[in-house]
Design a protein that fits this description.
single chain; alpha/beta; 8-stranded parallel β-sheet; binds N-(iminomethyl)-L-glutamic acid; binds fe (iii) ion
Length: about 400
């Protein structure tokens, strides 16, 4: 076998295997391999097990010194890290009492970032993506989804999606692009929301396929953005053209999650406003519920009801929503552990939410767990006890990061 290498021993190795996609989890269900090792070749995992058992005279060893806990690389299933400018003024206004929707109506909000992003050249956008990805890498994130949605015209959405594609070639992580041209009706579109969406479907969707820019379509269903009725034909078109669907749903008002279920979307994200009705419907469906605690922290509002969703039987992933408006922090582990603290989530539920359950939200079957055949994306923390990771609420940073079996970051 080519370039076979054994990495270890890790004091504790948590492969995150054998756990269900849906429903609540207990820490006792976690597999913990003491003094574990990972055998890798050509970017893939060959075997995971006891370091001593995997050792042989012929295999090269990349030795781990000191106590370290190994986990799958984190997958951030929802970000908006392609943007120009800043929304520090929105943040200041919110913290003196103006609401997100009020600020949006007064000319701030998403449209402000659209204006600033349209002013930026494609190379400037790539630079921003690279810088943000670098920070995410030091926090252990080896795969990130990245949305467009601050262009809101065919040309400007293309500029963003091409920047994301270029960014993907310039960063260590894999970037999963998503078209969010349905983020809001652009203020410079003279027609109705429906004619805007028809224009995007007719004139942008074919180019997305032709240039291989994305196979994912997202929409923001909200009073300040689009209604369920406006989005339904847009999603029908997207589905017919082979796109996967994901939805910004139930952030302030409900409706979005119902459409996500109707279209068998991969995920419904936000859900801060979901009530017991939406929770029950999501739990019955195969739609992954994505909690975005970074938006709750950035807006100073309630968290997604993750505990209730898990208890009802839903698949709950946790993502950063890293964006200049509602979630400028962009630190997934900090946010996931804070959500865990407020929502009373077991470590297993927090860690599942940023590994295999978030990979499921992106329909990525090759990562999020550590076992034979999966990508050799993993991270280690400088501790002997995995419980320390959530306990430090994001302040315990990964010591080492491996992408495709190669050590790429931190010590
Ligand atoms: O996921 N809710 C809509 N979209 C983003 C916020 C975008 C912005 O405010 O710039 C979100 O929170
Ligand atoms: Fe978002």
């Amino acid at each position: 076998m080519k370039n076979l290498k054994l990495i270890g021993p890790f004091t504790q190795l948590l492969p995150m295997t054998g756990l269900p996609i849906k429903g609540s989890l207990q820490d006792e269900q976690l597999t913990i391999i003491e003094n574990g090792g990972i055998l890798v070749s050509e970017g893939k995992i060959i075997k995971v097990g006891s370091f001593e058992d995997l050792k042989s005279d012929t295999v090269a060893i990349e030795r781990i010194e000191g106590g370290q806990v190994c986990l799958p690389g984190f997958v951030d299933a929802h970000t908006h890290i392609c943007f120009g400018g800043s929304r520090a003024n929105d943040y200041a206004m919110r913290n003196t009492g103006r609401s997100y929707l009020e600020i949006a109506k007064a000319g701030g909000g998403i449209w402000d970032t659209v204006t600033q992003t349209r002013k930026a050249g494609q190379d400037e956008l790539v630079k921003g993506i690279v810088a943000r990805c670098h920070k995410h890498l030091t926090n252990g994130i080896t795969t990130l989804e990245v949305k467009s949605g601050y262009g809101l015209s065919v040309a400007e959405e293309l500029k963003m999606l091409r920047a994301i594609k270029k960014g993907n070639n310039a960063v260590i992580q894999d970037l999963i692009p998503t078209c969010l041209a349905a983020h809001m009706k652009p203020k410079d579109w003279a027609g109705t929301p429906t004619t805007y969406l028809e224009h995007i479907a007719n004139d942008l969707f074919p180019i997305l396929h032709k240039e291989n820019l994305t196979h994912r379509i997202d929409a923001f269903i909200e009073e300040s953005a689009f209604s369920k009725e406006e989005i339904r034909p847009y999603f029908e078109n997207a589905k017919q053209n082979g796109f996967d669907i994901t939805v910004h749903a139930d952030q302030f008002t409900t409706d979005g999650s119902q459409l996500a279920i109707e279209f068998n979307a991969l995920s419904a994200d936000h859900l801060e406003a979901s009530t017991s009705k939406e929770i029950a419907l999501l739990a019955k469906s195969n739609v992954v519920a994505v909690a975005l605690p970074g938006a709750s922290i950035g807006l100073g509002c309630n968290f997604t009801p993750a505990r209730k969703l898990l208890d009802a039987g839903a698949a709950v992933a946790i993502a950063s929503d890293h964006n200049p408006g509602s979630a400028p922090m962009g630190d997934l582990l900090t946010q996931a552990t804070v959500l865990g603290c407020f929502e009373k989530l077991a470590n297993a539920e927090v860690l599942a939410g940023i590994t295999f359950r978030s990979a499921k939200a992106l329909n990525l079957k090759d990562r999020g767990i550590l076992e034979k055949g999966k990508m050799a994306d993993f991270i280690s923390f400088p501790t002997n006890n995995y419980q320390e990771i959530t306990y430090h609420q994001g302040q315990l940073k990964p010591k080492c990061i491996w992408k495709n079996g190669v050590k790429v970051g931190n010590g």
